[in-house]
Design goal:
Distance between the termini: 34 Å
Order of helices and strands: EHHEHEHEHEEEHEHEEHHHHEEHEEEH
Structural class: alpha/beta
Strand content: 15-25%
Shape: globular
Radius of gyration: 21 Å
Number of strands: 15
Helix content: 40-55%
Largest sheet: 7 strands, mixed
Number of helices: 13
Length: about 375
C-alpha cells in the first residue's frame, strides 16, 4: 500500500512546494469554522504573522483571506484605492502585470512603470514619476518577481514612498518568511503573502499584514464583497477570529504547524538554507554549461531562471519528464521573449536534495 505521508518527488517550484511530514499530518483533523478552538487558532496565526515582520503589534495587524495569493493582492488593491486616489504600479514581470490586470478590472485610476524582466526596478525613474505626477497616492510593487527570480530593491522603493508620503502595497508572496523583512522600518502599509510559499504551508489562503490606520481608511471603499479586507478584519476582530465565509480549516491547521517549524528554524536560518541551496544549484549547473539568467547581485535565493543549453535537441518537456522520473519536479520558464526553465530552492529542501538534482540534470541533458 502506498504511504500517503511520503512524497514521490521533490517539488522545486516557487509554491506549492515540498512540505514537511508534520504539515501534511496536520491536515488529518477536521475542525468546525464556528468552534472556539478553530477561531482561537486563527487569532493565534494572525498574531504570529505580525511577529515575523515587526514587534509593534499596536501599529500592525493581519487579515487572512480565502483563496490564492492573487486573491489577497486583488483584495488589497480593490479595497485600499479610493475613488479620488491614483495608483502607481511598478512591474518587471508577470506578477507586477497581474496587479495591472487587477486594477484594470476594477477600473482603478492608475499609471504604470514597466521595466525589463531581467533588470531590477530603477529608483531614479520612480522618483521622477512621483515628482511629475502629484496625483499619485499609492505605489504597488512585487518584492520578489518569480517570473525570473529577480529581487527588487525594497529598501529603496519604500524609502521613496516614505519620502513622498505615499501609501505602499508590497507583494511579498515569495519572500516573506524566507527573506527578513521589517515592515515598520520600511514603512510598508500593506504586506501581502500566502500560505504556500516560504512559510512552507499548503495552498488555500493568503494574508495581508497592514498598518491599522491604513486599513481603517479602506472602510467602505471595497469594490467586491468577498475580497473586502476591511470587513474581513472587522469580523475577525469582533468575533475572535471568525472568518466571514467558509474558510479552509485543514489548510489553516497545516499552516499553524508550518509556523511552528518556521519559528523553530528562524527566518534568518531559513534564508541561509535557501541561499545555500541556490548557490550550490547555480554553481553546479554552471559547471555543466547551464547559466543563470539573472546576475548574482539581483538574484533572489528563492527561485532561479536558467537558460537551456545551446542544443537543438533540447526539449523542456522531455527534460521535465526525465527529472520527474528521477524524483524532481521543476518549473517551465515564464519569460515572454526567451526560452528558459526555473528551479525553486524553497520548501523542505536541503543541500543533499540539490546535489541529487544536479546529478539527475547532468544525466537528463
Amino acid at each position: 500500500m502506498e504511504n500517503i505521508f511520503e512524497n514521490k518527488y521533490v517539488l522545486l517550484t516557487p509554491g506549492p512546494l515540498t512540505t514537511s511530514r508534520g504539515v501534511r499530518e496536520a491536515l488529518l483533523k477536521d475542525m468546525c469554522t464556528w468552534d472556539d478552538d478553530y477561531n482561537n487558532l486563527t487569532q493565534n496565526i494572525r498574531n504570529r504573522l505580525v511577529n515575523i515582520v515587526t514587534d509593534n503589534k499596536e501599529k500592525y495587524t493581519s487579515v487572512l483571506l480565502q483563496g490564492s495569493g492573487s486573491y489577497v493582492v486583488e483584495g488589497v488593491i480593490s479595497s485600499a484605492i479610493g475613488e479620488n486616489d491614483k495608483l502607481l504600479i511598478l512591474s518587471n514581470g508577470a506578477y507586477g502585470d497581474r496587479m495591472i490586470d487587477i486594477a484594470k478590472a476594477h477600473r482603478i485610476n492608475m499609471d504604470i512603470l514597466r521595466f525589463k524582466e531581467t533588470e531590477p526596478i530603477n529608483l531614479e525613474i520612480i522618483e521622477d514619476k512621483i515628482l511629475s505626477d502629484k496625483n499619485i497616492t499609492h505605489i504597488a510593487v512585487v518584492h520578489l518577481e518569480t517570473t525570473t527570480g529577480i529581487l527588487n530593491n525594497l529598501d529603496g522603493i519604500c524609502n521613496l514612498s516614505k519620502k513622498y508620503n505615499k501609501t505602499i502595497i508590497v507583494d511579498a508572496m515569495s519572500s516573506m518568511g524566507g527573506i527578513p523583512i521589517n515592515i515598520e522600518k520600511l514603512n510598508i502599509d500593506f504586506l501581502i503573502s500566502s500560505s504556500n510559499k516560504c512559510i512552507q504551508g499548503i495552498p488555500g489562503f493568503g494574508f495581508v499584514i497592514c498598518d491599522r490606520e491604513a486599513l481603517k481608511k479602506c472602510k467602505g471603499q471595497a469594490r467586491t464583497l468577498s475580497l473586502d479586507i476591511y470587513d474581513q478584519w472587522q469580523a475577525m476582530e469582533k468575533d475572535n477570529g471568525k472568518w466571514r465565509f467558509t474558510s479552509p480549516t485543514h489548510v489553516v491547521r497545516a499552516f499553524s504547524k508550518a509556523l511552528d517549524e518556521l519559528e523553530e528554524e528562524g527566518v534568518c536560518n531559513r534564508n541561509k538554507r535557501y541561499t545555500q541551496n541556490q548557490k550550490i544549484l547555480v554553481n553546479g549547473l554552471k559547471e555543466i554549461g547551464i547559466e543563470a539568467l539573472i546576475d548574482e547581485e539581483n538574484q533572489s535565493p528563492i527561485i532561479t531562471t536558467f537558460i537551456p543549453p545551446l542544443n537543438e535537441d533540447f526539449s523542456f518537456k522531455k527534460f521535465y519528464s526525465k527529472l520527474k522520473e528521477n524524483g524532481f519536479v521543476i518549473y517551465p520558464g515564464k519569460l515572454t521573449e526567451l526560452e528558459t526553465f526555473r528551479i525553486g530552492n524553497i520548501g523542505e529542501v536541503y543541500r543533499e536534495d540539490i546535489e541529487r538534482l544536479l546529478k539527475a540534470i547532468e544525466k537528463a541533458i
